[in-house]
Specification:
Largest sheet: 8 strands, parallel, barrel
Number of strands: 11
Strand content: 15-25%
Structural class: alpha/beta
Helix content: 40-55%
Order of helices and strands: HEHEHHEHEHEEEHEEHEHEHH
Radius of gyration: 18 Å
Distance between the termini: 17 Å
Strand order of the largest sheet: 1-2-3-4-5-8-10-11
Number of helices: 11
Length: 297
């Protein structure tokens, strides 16, 4: 069943769990996320970055839509970190029910302007919009001292941003970073900032950079009030570690010989995340909900 983000996260917020957003760019990753969410009876969000959308091509998303529309569990098809109106328009053209416009690296005025422009366009079509305030850090050995810290979201700014833009959900900076953390870096999610933001913003809040964080910190963030957690690196890492292992020991090249075991490894991570987010079994809470429909598409 296809939903938009308002439908998906209203239930999550009310029932104090989070929905995992899993980035996909090919059929194998889609299979890993969708089949495991179905096995867990957990709602899920299929997230696609603009670079992933460019790689996969428009025809792929016709397949994605049919797969999730016909699923027994609810899904959202979501543009992740869209950075231009053109990205947003392409996602809408491809049938996405939700988009993110990320102006977090721009000035306050420019972030508000592009986010409001996106909201005004998308709401005409029933497409929900996620904005971002504050920035998410980056990880990797090529970055000096291994971690480029993000900017923490200020509660008063979050309140003003939501009021001025009309966004449906808000991604906040509370100490996470994209990617896999180096072994010498221990992330720290600022639950105190999350609580302060929740006190003044009554919108579902989103945690980006959900991979590679300590489970106890993610669990606490969800229990405190995070409604959506983005996962990309963790389950892709498991997939490709297995792929390298198989290719190192087997000269076969058929996808049907290589990918099934890789998918199973990725599914283990998706299951763990669904459990961590409290999402297992929660698909039944959406029973009777009408699927999202966009009569303009």
């Amino acid at each position: 069943m296809l939903l938009n983000m308002n439908q998906m996260l209203a239930v999550a917020k009310k029932n104090h769990f989070a929905v995992g957003a899993y980035n996909v760019s090919n059929a194998e990753l889609l299979k890993s996320a969708v089949e495991q969410c179905e096995a867990d009876n957990a709602p899920g969000i299929i997230a696609v970055h603009p670079t992933e959308m460019a790689y996969a091509k428009d025809d792929f998303f016709a397949y994605v839509l049919q797969r999730i529309k016909n699923s027994k569990v609810p899904f959202v098809l979501h543009l992740d970190h869209g950075d231009t109106i053109d990205n947003v328009a392409r996602a809408i053209h491809n049938g996405f029910s939700s988009v993110m416009i990320d102006g977090s690296l721009a000035s306050w005025e420019d972030n508000v302007a592009i986010t409001k422009q996106t909201v005004d366009m998308c709401h005409l079509l029933g497409v929900t919009v996620e904005g971002e305030l504050g920035t998410i850090g980056q990880t990797g050995n090529h970055i000096k001292e291994h971690l480029q810290n993000g900017i923490y979201t200020q509660p008063e700014d979050a309140k003003k941003f939501v009021e001025e833009t009309g966004v449906d959900t808000l991604a906040i900076g509370i100490g996470t970073a994209h990617g896999i953390y180096p072994s010498d870096v221990t992330p720290k999610i600022r639950i105190d900032i999350l609580k302060d933001i929740m006190a003044v913003v009554d919108k579902p809040l989103v945690l980006h950079g959900g991979s590679s964080n300590p489970d106890d910190q993610i669990s606490e963030a969800v229990k405190t009030g995070i409604s959506k957690v983005n996962i990309s690196s963790d389950y892709k890492y498991a997939f490709f570690v297995k792929a390298r292992e198989v290719l190192a020991n087997d000269e076969g090249w058929d996808p049907n010989n290589l990918f099934p075991v890789c998918i199973e490894e990725a599914k283990k991570v998706v299951h763990h995340k669904n459990d961590l987010f409290g999402a297992i079994g929660k698909a039944s809470l959406y029973d009777g909900m009408a699927p999202w429909r966009n009569e303009f598409l």
